[in-house]
């Protein structure tokens, strides 16, 4: 192979390094909050954590790295196992703001372990395990979604509200358009289930979403009691 051939081969190899993205690389986070009333008001039902019924407030579901194209990485580092000792100072706040509703009733560690191993390990290039959970807690406080909605006359009273009104209230409150996801109660009513807010790769600042999830919400949806 001549000098020109080697040059082309090296160039292709060099380009290949940049075409192949490392698994931990990502473009933004979805910060996902769920309404407990909607989670529990389905045929699946729910179980309160061992600490008791959570507050009637949005709870954290997760902080999920995503790509601009709509796909996402997951389970990026099998060697980085969840270590509860690393978040011991956050546990009381996690129980309040990131409560589990899965059955059977439990403290929440299984939920947090799942979120770290599936999603958190894909953000290790920018934050460690403690920072991952701490940043999520700070984002929830920063968003203050229930206050934003109630200030706009949107209350968890089993009433029906327009999707546009909910979206605009949150957009006016945080400065960016959210993604809204619905589920159905046993009577097949569409209800407000999850809210997606996009966050920059530092995991600290809200941004406009590069892509919004398909929430499958109708123009009117129920905000269920809890």
| Percentage of β-strand residues | 15-25%
How are the strands of the biggest sheet laid out side by side? 2-1-5-4
The number of helical elements comes to 7
Q: Could you spell the SSE succession in H and E letters?
A: HEHEHHHHEHEEE
Helicity range: 25-40%
Largest sheet: 4 strands, antiparallel
| Rounded radius of gyration (Å) | 20 Å
Task: Extract low-pLDDT stretches.
Answer: 7-24
Q: What is the residue-averaged pLDDT?
A: 91
Organism: Arabidopsis suecica
GO molecular function, one term: ribonuclease T2 activity
Function: May remobilize phosphate, particularly when cells senesce or when phosphate becomes limiting.
Family: Belongs to the RNase T2 family.
Provide an overview of this structure:
The structure is a single chain. The protein is α+β, with helices and mostly antiparallel strands. The chain has 7 helices and 6 strands; from the N terminus they run H-E-H-E-H-H-H-H-E-H-E-E-E. It has helices at 3-19, 36-40, 91-97, 109-118, 129-143, 145-151, 163-174, and strands at 28-34, 59-66, 159-162, 179-184, 190-199, 220-223. The strands form 2 sheets. The chain has a 4-stranded antiparallel sheet. A two-stranded antiparallel ribbon has the order 3-6. It is globular and about 45 Å long. The termini are far apart. Mean pLDDT is 91; it is low at 7-24.
């Amino acid at each position: 192979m001549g000098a020109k051939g080697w040059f082309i081969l090296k160039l292709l190899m060099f380009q290949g390094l940049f075409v192949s993205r490392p698994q931990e690389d990502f473009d933004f986070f979805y910060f996902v909050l769920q309404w407990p009333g909607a989670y529990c008001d389905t045929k699946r039902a729910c179980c309160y954590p061992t600490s008791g019924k959570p507050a009637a407030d949005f709870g954290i579901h997760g902080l999920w790295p995503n790509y601009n194209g709509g796909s996402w990485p997951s389970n990026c580092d099998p060697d980085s196992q969840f270590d509860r000792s690393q978040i011991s100072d956050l546990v009381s706040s996690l129980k309040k703001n990131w409560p589990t509703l899965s059955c059977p009733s439990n403290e929440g560690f299984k939920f947090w372990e799942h979120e770290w191993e599936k999603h958190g390990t894909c953000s290790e290039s920018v934050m460690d395990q403690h920072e991952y959970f701490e940043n999520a807690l700070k984002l929830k406080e920063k968003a203050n979604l229930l206050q934003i909605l109630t200030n706009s006359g949107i209350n968890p009273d089993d009433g029906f509200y327009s999707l546009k009104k909910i979206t605009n209230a949150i957009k006016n409150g945080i400065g960016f358009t959210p993604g809204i996801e619905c589920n159905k109660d046993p009577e097949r009513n569409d209800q407000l289930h999850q809210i997606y807010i996009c966050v920059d790769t530092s995991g600290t600042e809200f941004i406009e979403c590069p892509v919004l999830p398909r929430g499958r919400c109708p123009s009117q949806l129920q905000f269920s009691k809890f």
